[in-house]
Amino acid sequence: MKSLKKAQGITLIGFIFGLVILGVFVYAGMQIGPVYMNHMNVVKAMKTVADESGNSSPSEIKNRLAKILDVSYVDQVNAKDFKVIRGNGRELEVKYEVEKSFFYNLSFLMKFEERVQLN
After folding, report:
1. What whole-number distance in Å separates Cα of residue 116 and Cα of residue 68?
2. Could you tell me the pTM of the whole model?
3. Terminus of the chain with fewer CB atoms < 10 Å: N or C?
4. Per residue, what are the HEC states of the chain?
5. Cβ burial, residue 79 (10 Å; 0-12/13-18/19+)
6. How far apart are CA 114 and CA 116, in angstroms?
7. Burial class of 113 by CB neighbour count within 10 A (0 to 12, 13 to 18, 19+)
């Protein structure tokens, strides 16, 4: 009688299943990645305006932010979402949410909140 060799490796169905799981994660990254890249542009714009603010009024700060965000092609947040808060010095604050659809009725909801001290 012949002895059977122990099977090694992965089956075709297992390989396809692994590819599907990998594909779902890659697709999720393609949906979420640009949102976080835009958020990094928002934070960069806030820091730039904070460094240049001096004694600028809140409306001047928001106008400058709107220009910087427009140049950076950020469309998920606008100047209305920013607030200048007075307290121990002045702070620039932004709070916004971004919803990205994923599959059929599933979506990602990402909430962002940042504060930067104004000079």
Report:
1. 16
2. 0.81
3. N
4. CCCCCCCCCCCHHHHHHHHHHHHHHHHHHHHHHHHHHHHHHHHHHHHHHHHHCCCCCHHHHHHHHHHHHHHCCCCCCCHHHEEEEEECEEEEEEEEEEEEEEECCEEEEEEEEEEEECC
5. middle
6. 7
7. exposed
